[in-house]
Amino acid sequence: MQQSIKAAIVGYGNLGKGVRKAIAQSADIELVAIFTRREPGQVEAGEAGVKFEHISAVEQYKGKVDVMILCGGSATDLPEQTPAIASLFNTVDSFDTHAKIPEFFATVDAAAKQGGTLSVISTGWDPGLFSMNRLLAESILPEGKEYTFWGKGVSQGHSDAIRRVQGVKAGVQYTVPVQEVIDAIRSGETPELTTREKHLRECYVVAEEGADREAIRAEIVNMPNYFADYDTTVTFITEEELAAQHSGIPHGGFVIRSGVTGEGTKQIVEFGLKLESNPEFTASVLVAYARAAVRLSNEGQSGAKTVFDIPLGHLSPKSAEELRRNLL
Question: Is 63 labelled a binding residue?
Answer without folding.
Answer: no
